[in-house]
Structures are given as C-alpha cells and as structure tokens.
C-alpha cells in the first residue's frame, strides 16, 4: 500500500502529477551568487493576494517575526530558553500577572522612526481593546511605559506559562497602526522594524530583502528571501527539481522522490508537533468504561500504523502524549522508557472480565446490549487518516471491536466532533509552546460548553476535577519544581486513565535542500522547529543560515 | 423592439432570482468557516483564536431577512465583501485578479474551438459521403473522452514526464509581471497546454453539431432551389445552408462564452491555473462564503448576459424571430 497523504484538500487526480518521477520545470534565470535568494515554500496557494498584516487571519507567511519583530524568539523545541530579541530582558512579578520588559534602545522602523516603549504599549493595548487582534486569547489587562525602553504588561490572570505567546506577538508601529482598524486592514506594503522588508510582490512570487539598517543585519547572511507560490500538489515537483531550499508539507515516498536525487544536500526532519488521537466520545456512557478504553489501546499497534500509513517518517507516539523529541525533556522520569505495547491476550481478558461477550459474528456486545460496532468518522480528504482508520479497523477486529471507517466531508467532520455528534473519531491536538498547551487542549474543562453548543477543544469531553487542578497548578507558578510535579500528575492521568488514545504523532513537516544554504535544524542540531510557518523558529533559522561551501 | 423589451424584463427577473439563490445557498451549507479555518490550520491557529477570527470576519447572527437586505444594499454599492480565506482582502480584488487569466485562457480557447469546430463541421457536411465521413468516428471518440482524464494524461505525458510544458501556474515563478517579451512568452508558454486540452476536449462537439445541422439544412427545399437557380456553391453553402444551420450553435456558443467566466474549473484545477475556476474551487474548500458568493454572482450574471446576447444575435441572424415578435 502506498498511501498518498495530503493534509489539504486533495485535488482530483493530483496524485498522478505528484507521483511523476521526471525532473520538470525551467530553472531560474541565473542571479549573481551574492544575491542568491533562500527559496521558501510557506503558503499553500496558487496565487497570492498582497496581504501582510500580521494580525489578520488570512495574511501571507513572512511578516510575523521577519518584518514585524517580537520581544523574544521562542521555539517549542527549546521552550525554556527563549532568545532575547526586541526585549533584552523580561521578568515576571511574583504571581505572574505583571511582565516587566526591557527593550533594546537601537531599534528603528524602516521609515526612520524609533521603536520605543510607546509602540510596545500600543501593541498590547491593541490586543486588549481589539478582540480581533487577540488571536491567542491573552488576558492582557494593561500596558504602561516606565521609560523609553521599559514596559510593564499586566494580565488579569497568572500568565507564566504563556510567556512564549506574550513575547511572540508582532510589535507594530503606533504611528501607522493607529490610523486604521488593525484587525481588518489589508496591508499591501508592510513597514516594520525587522531584519527583512518586502521587496517585490506579484501574485505568484514575493521577495523580502535584508534591512541593512537593522541592528542584527550583519548576522543575517541571506540577502534575499523568495516565497514562490506552490500548492501541496505542485510543491513536490518543484522540490524534486531543486527549485526550493526550504519547505513544509508531506511528500510521499520522500527518500526516492526527493532525497534520492541529491542525498548529500537534501533531507527532512519531522519532530512531533502534536498528537493524533483516537477520540472516544466520553459523554456516551459506554466509553466511560476505562477497561474498554484500555483494551482498545492494548489492541492498537502504533508501530504498524507509523510504518504503513506514514512510511516510518517518525516513530509511534509516547503514552503521555508528549511529542518527541520536541517535549522529550518534560517526560517524567518513570515514563521515560515507557512505550505503548500491544497485548491482545490482556485486552481480551479485560473485555471478558468486564462482561463484553462475543456475539455470533465475533463482535462483542456490551453488558447493556450495545454491540461494539461503530462507524469511525474521518474526513475523506485526509488520505493518511483513511489509511490509519483502515488499519485500526483490522487491528481492533482482533478483540471483537468493529470500527468501520466512514469518510465524511471535512466540514461534517469538524461539525461532528465539535458538537459531540459521534461515537469514535480521530482528532489532533497541537503541541503548542509547551506541554501545558497540549494538556489544556486535551483535558481542560474550560472548553466545556452549555448543552449542545459546539466545543473548540477537548473533543472527547474529558471533564475531571483532578485534571483541572493540575493544569491550574502548572499555570500559576514559575517554580520549576511545582511545574514538574503538576506535569508528572498530568502524565500519570494520560497513561493510567486514557482520556484519549494517542495513535500517531502530528509532525512538524520540514524538508530542506542545502545545495545553496546550510544551517537548518536537524535531529543532530535540534535548535528549532523546521517548518517555515513557525514564526519564532523561522527567524532563528534564517539567523543561522550560511552559503554552502563558504 | 417589443421582443427585446420582453426579453429584458425576463432577464431582470432571472437575475434577481440568481442573486437571491446566491444569497441563500452558502447559508444553507453545513459548517462554520471559523472552525474549518482553525481545523485546517493544523495547529497554527489555536482554539483560542476562534473569538478573534469571528470578530475579524464580522460574522453575525442577524435574522436572514436583515442579512438579505444588507446583502442587496452591498451589491447596489458594488461591494462584494471581504474574503475569509484571504482575510482581509476584498472579494472584488481577488475576482479582478483572477478574471484576466480565465478570460485569456478559457475565452480564447473557447473561441478557437468554436471557430475550428464549426468551420470543420460545415466542411465535413459539404463533403459528406466521401473520405471525410471516416473522420466522424474519431471525432465521436474525442467528444466522448472525459475531459479530466484526457487532460491528466496530457499533463502526465507532456509536462511531467517529457517536461515540454510547465505543469502549473500562469507564468514562471521567478518572474514579475511586466510588459516585456520574456514575461509574455512565459504566459503563452504556460497557457499553451491547458488551452490545447480545452480545444481538444470541446471542438469535436462543435464539429458534430455543425455537420449534422448543415446536412439537415442541405436537404431543405430552399437549398435545392438555390442550387437549381445556379448560385455559386460557396453562396449556397454559406449564405443558405450554414447561416441557418449555425443558429443552434450560436446559442451553444453564447452559453459557452457565458460559462467562460466561471472558468473551466477542471482545467484550472488540473493545471493549477490562477483563474476564476481555481479560485472558486479554493473558496469552496475553505468555506469562504463571501468569495463564493462573489464568484457565483459574476458567473451567473455572465451566463445571463451571454443569453441576452444570444437572443439579440438571433434577431439579427434569423428574420423569423423579428416577425414573430
């Protein structure tokens, strides 16, 4: 089985195009080597619209971090050690409600004005006052400038754990952004303070050029960045032909199709950036039975799934749900060597003991008479999940549980798991900046909705006081010891009470070609996440890139 | 004149119906664009972003009637709203950016296909009963091949395997649009293969329709009469037979031209061509209601306008319609 995986809507027949083997395309006209751009595929699009507002939902990739800078650079890969950027230093007050920020004093907007505390104050007050710009739902209460380079940002709740979010907000120029509605303005010509500025724009390509006035300009070797338009489908062929240096996205059969053409320079690295879970609707009484969930988990062979559906691009998920290697350092000592194990005998024993008797057709029946036979709802455009669902169906049949994969439209799937109108489905939880985000999305009751209202996270509907207490303990302290303990408690919960069943890692897709530029992160040097859509990691990576061979 | 006025009133009614359906259909579709955007972002947007995006998009829970009146008001001001998937780019910007690509590619290809097909059809009818009849089965075959299948085979063969043609885009991705030969050349080069598939996929239909109609007309008494009074063959063919035979084709052509604005969606999707058809495909995948609405509006108005033009052309071509009215 050769699965064709495409996370975005897979086009009719595109597999035929993507699966071709020949090199295609005319090569770029020769530019002087000094000006050789880093060619980045970061938008899944055939045509671009000139839209570079870092606070607008449909903006193009790039302005965040590269044009509009942030206080710090942080990457989930090294969440505890953010890189100082506009801020030389940040410090929390005791209860995590006030963050004192010390700014660099040598930063200018590209129009010549000085970037000072007033711009930072403006940015955070904008986030407070204009809900459309508060995409991370930060509880900003206020911001005050103590002097030209010191700002106090206050919050209505303890915000320790969200420091990476707070410090990753793009700082915008007050003298520009105060003239329009920042959440709804189309910005075709961005003006920021960052190491790059927009050079040219067309509907198929835009380029950034280095801002040589920038305080760190000398540390950025690439003078030009080119963002050509490719879709997930056309990207594969472009990658093959060596037309891209850096991209995200899944490539089927990557060793042959991409790496094989130039193994010396081409590679990929897919660290975990979330976890894909078999999601059982815990509002239905049947799934509240821990023995049933445990038996199902014991029957799922994650290694087979990683191998067949994902060609072993990455390993199986960890029982704590923490993605590796991204959050490996957070895994509690006692779980470090733990892996999911397949044990059909134990699974069958559990089910027998709990009274799930096998019927004539081999399908077990719950004590209340419900046969353990369910449709497994998945979006039919997620080809990888279709394969996963088929494998799950086969594996669970061995313990007398029948899951029949049922492909539904993406919209219906979203609607079903949000409104709780399903028995079994597959959902993803993103890792976020640190484990608190992941566990909050999986376990927190704060997402609970009034009857029938759709929920936005915790799709399996795990509402549990202990989980909420642990999450709150974690988020209201800066003490690493207390955080570690709360985190260990959450991991225990994941391992022992199985609120969700992790089945696959949700990877950070990242493919690189070092023929022209080197310094990308890798398993050996995991300093950042590689996907070009991660704002903080993106700046870190460009900061490190150097011309190959020089 | 009364004929045209009656037609105009009819078309005004049709246009209103189209506008109203255009308003209703996206609102009857299942799903919530905000949640779809978040789920499709694969972790780039957190659940917490929902409120912010809702605020940005200005999604309302107003009663349908209020929304409908607001919609008509916006239309009267030619305001098509703001795209959700490209937020905050106005829908009209996206449509006007994609329109030239579609008109250029699909429009030109449709005209070529019609001229080629109709001309060949007349020729085949005139020479019926000779070797030319052997061409017919081949044309029927061409006409029957599913378009997407033929186009995919051609892409795979000519673009991917042989590399003679580009496989995506409107022009080379290393260029910026300018009025210069290399850019124009690149545009033509990128349009060549998709245009070829459209012509191959549609011209056989025109040939068959035109040939069959011409053959029928050639059997009419007035054609025998014209031949009998010794008119030159060319006059008989074009002035008597073809002029009458082309009437159904004109209707078909007008409809085809109207459909051009919708873009040949399959062509544009297969070739990742940056026209309206591809834009519509993307809008539907992303549940971008304002963009979908804008596109449907333009497409339906184009079809209605094309029909109106076809009716007007009938009046010119066929004197009988003038007397009937």
Q: Which blocks of ≥5 consecutive residues of chain A have pLDDT under 50?
A: 1-31
C-alpha Rg of chain A, in Å?
A: 25 Å
The dominant shape of chain B is globular
Low-confidence spans of chain B: none
How many strands of chain B?
0
Compute the separation of the termini of chain A in Å. 43 Å
Approximate helicity band of chain B: over 70%
Give the termini distance of chain B in whole angstroms: 8 Å
Largest interface: A-B, 74 and 71 residues
> Major beta sheet of chain B, specifics?
none
Strand order of the largest sheet of chain A: 8-9-10-1-11-20-12
Q: Tell me what portion of residues of chain B adopts beta-strand conformation.
A: under 5%
Global mean pLDDT of chain A: 89
The global form of chain A is: globular
Strand count, sense and barrel status of the largest sheet of chain A are: 7 strands, mixed
CATH architecture group name of the domain at 98-324 in chain B: Orthogonal Bundle
The radius of gyration over CA of chain B amounts to 24 Å
Order of helices and strands of chain B: HHHHHHHHHHHHHH
User: Based on helices, strands and strand pairing, what is the structural class of chain A?
Assistant: alpha+beta
User: What is the SS-derived class of chain B?
Assistant: mainly alpha
CATH topology of the domain at 98-324 in chain B, anyone? Answer: MetI-like fold
Kindly list the characteristics that best describe this protein.
heterodimer, A: 550 residues, alpha+beta, five-stranded mixed β-sheet, 16 helices, 22 strands, B: MetI-like fold, 14 helices
Structure, described:
The complex is a heterodimer of chains A (550) and B (325). Chain A has helices spanning 14-18, 63-66, 117-129, 163-166, 174-177, 232-240, 254-257, 290-299, 302-308, 344-353, 383-397, 410-419, 435-443, 465-475, 480-497, 535-544; strands at 38-41, 72-73, 83-84, 87-92, 98-103, 140-147, 150-155, 196-202, 205-210, 224-228, 246-247, 266-268, 272-280, 357-358, 364-365, 373-379, 402-408, 424-430, 501-507, 511-513, 517-518, 546-547. Chain A has 550 residues and is α+β, with helices and mostly antiparallel strands. Chain A has a seven-stranded mixed β-sheet with strand order 8-9-10-1-11-20-12, with no helix packed on it. In chain A, strands 17-16-18-13-19 form a five-stranded mixed β-sheet, with helices on both faces. Chain A is globular and about 80 Å long. Residues 1-31 of chain A have low confidence and may be disordered. By secondary structure, chain B is mostly helical. Chain B has a domain at 98-324: MetI-like (MetI-like fold), CATH 1.10.3720.10. Chain B is built from 14 helices and no strands. The longest helix of chain B has 38 residues, at 181-218. Chain B is globular, with a radius of gyration of 24 Å. The mean pLDDT of chain B is 83. The chains are: A alpha+beta (550), B mainly alpha (325). At the A-B interface, α6 and α12 of A face α2, α3, α5, α7 and α11 of B.
């Amino acid at each position: 089985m050769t699965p064709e995986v495409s996370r975005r809507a897979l086009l009719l027949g595109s597999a035929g195009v993507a699966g071709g083997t020949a090199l295609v395309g005319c090569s770029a006209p020769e530019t002087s080597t000094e000006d050789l751009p880093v060619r980045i595929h970061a938008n899944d699009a055939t045509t671009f619209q000139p839209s570079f507002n870092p606070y607008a939902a449909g903006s193009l990739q790039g302005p965040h971090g590269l044009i509009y800078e942030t206080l710090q650079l942080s990457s989930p890969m090294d969440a505890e050690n953010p890189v100082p950027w506009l801020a030389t230093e940040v410090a929390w007050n005791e209860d995590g409600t006030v963050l004192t920020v010390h700014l660099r004093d040598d930063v200018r907007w590209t129009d010549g004005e000085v970037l000072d505390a007033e711009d930072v104050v403006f940015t955070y007050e904008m986030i407070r006052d204009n809900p459309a710009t508060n995409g991370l739902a930060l509880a900003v209460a206020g911001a005050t400038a103590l002097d030209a380079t010191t700002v106090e940002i206050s919050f209505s709740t303890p915000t320790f754990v969200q420091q990476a979010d707070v410090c990753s907000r793009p700082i915008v120029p007050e003298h520009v952004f105060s003239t329009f509605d920042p959440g709804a303005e189309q910005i075709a010509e961005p003006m920021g303070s960052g190491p790059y500025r927009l050079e040219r724009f067309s509907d198929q390509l835009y380029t950034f050029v280095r801002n040589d006035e920038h305080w760190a300009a000398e540390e950025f070797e690439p003078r030009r960045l080119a963002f050509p338009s490719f879709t997930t489908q056309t990207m594969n062929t472009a990658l093959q032909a060596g037309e891209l240096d850096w991209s995200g996205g899944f490539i089927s059969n990557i060793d042959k199709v991409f790496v094989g053409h130039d193994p010396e320079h081409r590679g990929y690295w897919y660290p975990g950036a979330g976890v894909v879970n078999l999601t059982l609707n815990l509002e239905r009484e049947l799934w509240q039975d821990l023995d049933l969930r445990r038996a199902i988990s014991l029957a799922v062979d994650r290694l087979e799934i990683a191998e067949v559906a994902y060609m072993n691009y990455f390993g199986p998920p960890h029982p704590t749900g923490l993605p590796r290697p991204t959050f490996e350092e957070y895994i509690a000592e006692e779980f470090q060597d733990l892996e999911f194990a397949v044990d059909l005998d134990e699974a069958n024993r559990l089910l027998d003991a709990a009274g799930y008797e096998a019927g004539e057709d081999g399908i077990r029946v719950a004590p209340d008479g419900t046969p353990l036979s369910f449709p497994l709802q998945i979006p039919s455009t997620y080809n990888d999940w279709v394969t996963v669902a088929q494998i799950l169906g086969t594996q669970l049949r061995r313990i007398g549980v029948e899951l029949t994969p049922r492909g539904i439209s993406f919209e219906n799937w979203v609607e079903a798991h949000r409104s709780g109108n399903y028995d079994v489905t597959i959902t993803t939880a993103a890792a976020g900046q640190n484990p608190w985000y992941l566990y909050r999305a999986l376990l927190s009751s704060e997402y609970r909705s009034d009857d029938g209202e759709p929920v936005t996270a915790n799709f399996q509907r795990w509402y549990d006081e202990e989980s909420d207490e642990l999450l709150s303990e974690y988020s209201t302290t800066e003490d690493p010891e207390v955080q570690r303990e709360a985190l260990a408690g959450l991991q225990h919960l994941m391992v022992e009470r199985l609120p969700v069943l992790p089945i696959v890692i949700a990877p950070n897709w990242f493919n690189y070609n070092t023929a022209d530029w080197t310094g990308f992160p890798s398993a050996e040097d995991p300093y950042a996440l590689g996907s070009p859509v991660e704002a903080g990691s993106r700046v870190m990576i460009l900061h490190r890139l150097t011309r190959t061979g020089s | 004149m009364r004929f045209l006025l009656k037609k105009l009133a009819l078309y005004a009614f049709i246009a209103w119906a189209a506008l109203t359906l255009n308003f209703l259909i996206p609102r009857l579709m299942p799903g919530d664009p905000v949640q779809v955007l978040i789920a499709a972002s694969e972790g780039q947007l957190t659940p917490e972003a929902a409120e912010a995006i809702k605020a940005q998009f200005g999604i309302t829970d107003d009663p349908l009637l209020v929304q409908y009146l607001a919609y008509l008001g916006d239309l009267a001001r030619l305001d098509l709203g703001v795209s959700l998937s490209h937020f905050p780019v106005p829908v009209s910007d996206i449509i006007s950016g994609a329109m030239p690509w579609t008109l250029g590619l699909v429009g030109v290809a449709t005209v070529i296909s019609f001229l080629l097909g109709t001309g060949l059809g007349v020729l085949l009818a005139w020479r019926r009963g000779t070797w030319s009849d052997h061409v017919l089965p081949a044309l029927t075959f061409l006409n029957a091949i599913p378009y997407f299948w033929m186009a995919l085979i051609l892409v795979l063969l000519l673009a991917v395997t042989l590399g003679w043609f580009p496989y995506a885009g409107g022009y080379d991705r290393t260029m910026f649009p300018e009025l210069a030969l290399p850019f124009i050349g690149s545009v033509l080069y990128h349009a060549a293969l998709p245009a070829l598939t459209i012509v191959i996929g549609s011209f056989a239909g025109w040939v068959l329709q035109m040939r069959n109609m011409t053959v029928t007309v050639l059997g009419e008494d007035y054609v025998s009469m014209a031949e009998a009074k010794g008119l030159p063959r060319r006059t008989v063919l074009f002035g008597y037979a073809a002029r009458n035979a082309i009437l159904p084709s004109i209707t078909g052509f007008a409809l085809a031209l109207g459909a051009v604005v919708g873009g040949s969606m399959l062509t544009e999707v297969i070739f990742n061509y940056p026209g309206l058809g591809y834009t519509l495909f993307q809008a539907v995948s992303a549940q971008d209601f304002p963009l979908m609405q804008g596109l449907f509006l333009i497409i339906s108005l184009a079809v209605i306008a094309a029909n109106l033009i076809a009716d007007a052309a009938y009046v010119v071509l066929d004197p009988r319609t003038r007397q009937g009215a």
